[in-house]
Amino acid sequence: MVIKWGAGKECQSGDRPLKRAVAYVRMSTDHQKYSTDNQSAEILSYAERRGFEIIRTYADEGKSGLRVNDRSAFQQLLADIDSGNIDFEAILVYDVSRWGRFQDINEAAYYELLCKRAGITIHFCAEQFENDGTIGSSIIKVVKHGMAGEYSRELSVKVFAGQCRLISLGYRQGGPPGFGLRRMLVDERGEQKGVLDRGEHKSIATDRVVLVHGPGEEVSIVREIYRQFVKEQRSERQIADWLNGKGISSDLGRPWTRGTVHQILINDKYAGHNVWGRTSFKLKARHVRNDPSSWIRRDQAFSAIVSQQLFDRARLIIEQRSKRLSDEELLAFLSDIFAKNGYLSGLIIDEFEYGPSSSAYQTRFGSLLRAYSLVGYVPDHDYRYLEINRALRRMHPSIVKNVIKGVEAVGGTAIQNLENDMLLINEEITASVIIARCKLTRGGSRRWKIRLDESLRPDLTICVRMDEDNMNAQDYYILPRMTLAEGVLRLADHNGLSFDAFRYESLDAFFALAKRAPFRKVA
């Protein structure tokens, strides 16, 4: 949004003419500390003190500072500068964070350089430094840009950890409820406050959302879909035709398709389970499809529409019907879909008439990515991390076995719980082993994400950090329970004394803790 101000003020005799400038203001949400009105007031005060005349304001309201793609006013400002048809010599911004919270500080510098080359200076009105290009101000500005980006990263981590916690408690985190279900608003005591319609959201921070049964006729239709599919052996297409013939619309008010019926038959929420994190879009970088091992789920979170037995039978039918096809026949179907559409996705595969589902390709070939490669399709995004995660899962049992051997070698005992791989050391201390995949950022820095199972709460967590190639262990963190306040930890090469004090080059320190010693020697 661009706001034009009134005609310029006339200077009094003897006064220097006012310098023409534009203002840029931005806020992410309506509840943000820095509202555009507050920013404009500070900028106007700065302009009066410094001899600027604000001729118009570029305003991005409700826009994130992570990217410029969604900031139409910022894009318009850059376009005006690029065109060369400019009638101002300065841009007034409240502070560095309003210019952007870019994850790469070079991006912030790039846009400022574009302005500088056009002869336009940028003034950060509420900052304690002058943006005059001196060494001192340049250093402070770089630090400020880094802090602005780090704020978003830290907020993303905290929000994600909070979402994981709420999912584990059975609360819904975004997304439409689906046919036959509704979103119920509950207060902090769990008492129902009312059903949320499409487009409505909670307005009180302590309120939560759970899934409940929708109208009785919709619930009956969902159960009828499962009955026809399981007991009458009707296909998704036949069921969709039956629904459309009855004049029944989907939850989005659209005709039924093979894919929409298929999604009802495979979605865990109809069996009462709360599953979240199938995809992610962190820091607005890119959408990724997460490995099932990283999904967050809470079983029996709400009342099921269909029984677990009926849900499992439907899932089994979907899996078994593809087992009758050879690998060559499956790939022939996939090649045909690719030829007709020009690209592939799970949804497109599920809509393909009389063909196997996307889950069938995942089961047969290990992943959709591998199936895509076999028919010559290369997605735009890099999904190699899925293969790495699978390799690390295969590695996990051998690492646990080595830990057990190491404890026994020093005279201790280690008993493995086969249900959750928890280790009981010397019949006193519980420990779990986690492998952290190494990920390189765009800047070449290494990062590791540790996802903890909060339901286990072991006394010690042994985190194995992999090297850049994710082939060998680089080092180990032996973390006591008291240090693990959040369900997800993110580590870099250097993490401060609070975490790096628990880092070891090998597990010898852990084995030393498990070593038995005679009472006389200890005394």
Question: Could you explain how this protein is built, in words?
Answer:
The protein has 4 domains: 151 residues, Rossmann fold (3-Layer(aba) Sandwich), CATH 3.40.50.1390; 156 residues, Putative Large Serine Recombinase, Chain B, Domain 2 (Hect, E3 ligase catalytic domain fold, Alpha-Beta Complex); 57 residues, no CATH class; 136 residues, Trna Endonuclease, Chain: A, domain 1 (3-Layer(aba) Sandwich). The protein is α+β, with helices and mostly antiparallel strands and 523 residues long. Helix 7 packs across helix 8 and helix 9 crosses helix 12. About 3% of the residues have low confidence. It has 17 helices and 21 strands. A 6-stranded mixed β-sheet has the order 13-14-15-18-19-21, covered by helices on one side. It has a 5-stranded mixed β-sheet with strand order 1-3-2-4-5, with helices on both faces. A 3-stranded antiparallel β-sheet has the order 7-6-8.
